[in-house]
Amino acid sequence: MWELRGGEFSKVPDAEIIAVGSELLTHERVDTNSLFITEQLNALGVEVSRKLVVGDDRRRLTAAIRDALSNVEIVVLSGGLGPTEDDLTRDAVADALGRKLIFSQGICDQIEERFRRFQRKMAEINKRQAYLVEGADALENPRGTAPGQWIETNGETGGRIIMLLPGPPGELKPMFTDQCVPRLVRHLPPQVIRVRQFRVAGMGESDLDQLIAPVYTKYTNPATTILAGAGDIHVNLRARGETEEEVERLLNEVAPPIEELLGDRIYSRSGDSLEAVVGNLLRSSKTTLSVAESCTGGLFGQRITSIAGSSDYFLGGLIVYSDAMKTALLGVDPALIEAHTAVSEEVARAMAAGARSKTGSTYAISITCEAGPRSATAAAPGTVFLGFASEAGTDARKLHLPGDRNRIRNLAAQSALDFVRRKLMTT
Ligand code: AMP
Ligand code: MG
After folding, report:
1. pTM over 0.85
2. Is the CB of 141 within 6 Å of ligand 1?
3. Of all protein residues, whose CA lies closest to atom 5 belonging to ligand 1?
4. Mutate to test the pocket of ligand 1, among 18, 20, 23, 25 (most ligand atoms within 8 A of CB)
5. CB 202 less than 6 A from any atom of ligand 1
6. pLDDT recorded at residue 155
7. Bridge partners, 102 (sequence order)
8. pLDDT value at position 22?
9. Strand ranges inside 44-165, DSSP E
C-alpha cells in the first residue's frame, strides 16, 4: 500500500477542523482558532471543506473524528488537551483510530521541568498530558504544558494526517506555523498559490457583487472571495496551479476585467489600508492635511494617526460638536448655521475652510452629519456632508449612509478618507 509517511498526497488534500470544548457552544466563547487554521491552510492551497464545534463529550467527539477521517485527508483538532477530566481529545482520537494511548516519560519530565521553572510542583493530573496516541509525534509547546500531536495513518481510503493542537490561541498559533506547516508542506504536491487583492471604498457589498459577479462566477480558479467591512470591501482572487506561469495566466485573465469594472473605486492593490493610501499620497506630494469633525468626534483623526509617521503630513484636527464651537474655533458664521443648519453643504464648506486657515494645512476635510437615532436638525439620520478646502477653494459631498449611529459614524469617517483620496488623485 502507498505509504504517506515521507510521501506526498497524490492530489491536493482537503481538510476538516474540529474545535473541541463545551465553552465554545455557549454564547460567551467563540471558536477563533479555526479561522486562523483556515487562513494558514488556504495559504498552502488546502481547502477547508467543513468545520465543527464539538463539546467535551468523548462519544460525540470520537464519532466526529471518524466521520472527518472518512471525508478528508487532513483533520485538525483544537482544544481538549488540558489536564482535567473534560479534556478528552487524546482519548477520542485513540478511540477513533483504534489505537492505544501511550505514556511518555520524556514528555512527563518536560512538563515537570516546566512547573519547576515557574517554582511550582506538577499536579498528578498533569500526567494525563504526557500520553501520546500510539504512533504520534509530539509537537513541542514552549508556551504551555500540553504538547500537540501529529499523526500520520494509512487508512482504507488512503493517507491521513491528524493534528491535535492546544486550545489557547497563543499556544496553537506558533505551534501551527512553526511545526505543522513545515511538516505539512512535505506531503503536499508541488503547487503555486498567488492572491491578488483589490480594496474598494465608496460602494456597498451588494452593488459591488452585482457589478463583478458576471465576471468572477465564470471561474472556480482563481477563487474569488468578497470580504465586506464598513464602507470597505476586499476582493480576493486566489489562483492555484502547478507553475508560476500558469497561475499568472489565470490571474491575468480574471483580474483585469474586474479591475476595469471597479475603476477608481479601488484604493489599494497592495493591501494598504485607506488611511495609509491617503498618507502616501500626501507624503509624496509634500502636502499637509487637517480635519474638522463634528458627528465623528475624532474618528477621522484616530484613523489617519494610526499610521506611523503620519506627523509628516497630518497637522491636527478640531472636534467641533456644538454650533458655538464651530464658530469659536473655526470662524463659521452663526448666520450661516442659522440659515442652513449645522448639517448642510454650506457649513461643511465653511468648516473645511476654517480648519485650513486655522492650521495652515494645504488641505482640510470636514465632516458634519446627523448620526441619529434622533435628528437635531431637519436632516434625516444618515445625512452626511463632507467639505474639502484647498488653495483652489472649497468643495462638498452629500451622502446618505445606512445603519445605526455607530455604523453611520464609521462610514462617515471612511467616506471622508475616500473623499480626500479622490481629491488628491485629481489635484
Ligand atoms: P482547552 O485546550 O480545551 O483546555 O482550551 C483552553 C482554552 O483555550 C479555552 O478556555 C479557551 O479560552 C481557548 N480555546 C479553546 N478552543 C478555542 C478555539 N477554538 N478558539 C479560541 N479559543 C479557544
Ligand atoms: Mg477545553
Report:
1. no
2. no
3. 167
4. 23
5. no
6. 67
7. 132
8. 97
9. 47-54, 74-78, 101-103, 131-133, 137-139, 148-155, 158-165
Ligand 1 mean position to 178 CA, how many Å?
Answer: 19
Q: Tell me whether strands 74-78 and 47-54 are parallel, antiparallel or unpaired.
A: unpaired
State the DSSP H helix or E strand holding residue 323, giving kind and residue range, or none if neither: helix 323-330
Low-confidence ranges of the chain (pLDDT < 50): 1-3
Q: Cell numbers 482520537 label which residue?
A: 93
Distance from residue 31's CA to the centre of ligand 1 (Å)? 8
pLDDT value at position 3?
47
φ and ψ at residue 164, rounded to 5 degrees? -110, 115
Inter-residue contact 395 to 346 (CB < 8 Å): no
Predicted confidence at residue 230, as pLDDT, reads 83
Q: With CA atoms as reference, report the closest residue to 80 among 138, 163, 14, 16.
A: 163
DSSP-assigned beta bridge partners for residue 151? 162
CA 122 / ligand 1 centre spacing (Å): 21
pLDDT of residue 37: 98
Q: Which three cell numbers stand for residue 280?
A: 502616501
Q: Is ligand 1 within 6 A of the CB of residue 53?
A: no
Residue written as grid cell 467641533: 320
Write the pLDDT tens digit of every residue in 109-125.
Answer: 999 999 999 999 989 89
Phi and psi, residue 376, nearest 5°: -90, -15
324 contacts: CB under 8 Å, gap ≥ 6: none
Specify the amino acid at residue 85. Answer: E
At 4 the pLDDT is: 60
Ordered DSSP codes for 284-299: HTT--EEEEESTTTTH
For residues 277 and 420, is the Cβ–Cβ distance under 8 A?
A: no
> Which of 17, 20, 25, 33 to mutate to test ligand 1, by most ligand atoms within 8 A of the CB atom?
33
C-beta of 80 in contact with ligand 1 (< 6 A) = yes
